[in-house]
Amino acid sequence: MNESTSHQDGAVTTLTKQISDADVALFNLVTGLTTVTSDQIPIPTQSTRQIAPMAMIAAMLAGAAAQHGLRPDTVRFLSETIHFTEPAYTDDTLTATAQVVDRDNAAQSVRVLAHCENQDGRRLAEGEFVLSD
Asked: In angstroms, how far is CA 32 from the centroid of its own chain?
């Protein structure tokens, strides 16, 4: 869900996603974190919750931040810093919120602060992104 996709100061974008076992398995496959091939992906079982890769949370934050670029699908990240405070688990519903805090017209860049919370309001990660227009 996107609340806004503006690059103006104060604009906010919110993305919400429930993390499933399949999401984690596919993310691991795409990023090379697993040796399983696409035709060998196991059918997830609901026996225990697993920790979602922190890179998956970083990608969600970056996706929310990218919405503030003039062309979100081709935005260029000049810098990003992410700090993780707690893990996310399968079955968690995560909300990534990104807000434009500064625009540098001379450098044609936008600075975005973002954070990710779970369904209990616990902050799992926060980051700062500088995007090129």
From this structure: 18
Q: How far apart are the first and last CA of the chain?
A: 23
For residue 106, the one-letter residue type is: A
Give per-residue pLDDT as tens, 4-42: 455 566 789 999 999 999 999 888 888 877 655 556 555
The answer to whether 68 and 13 have CB atoms below 8 angstroms apart is yes
User: Could you tell me the CATH number of the domain that includes residue 71?
Assistant: 3.10.129.10
DSSP-assigned letter for residue 117:
E
Kindly report the length of the chain. 133
Q: Are 114 and 70 within 8 A, CB to CB?
A: no
Query: Does residue 125 lie within any of the structural domains?
Result: yes
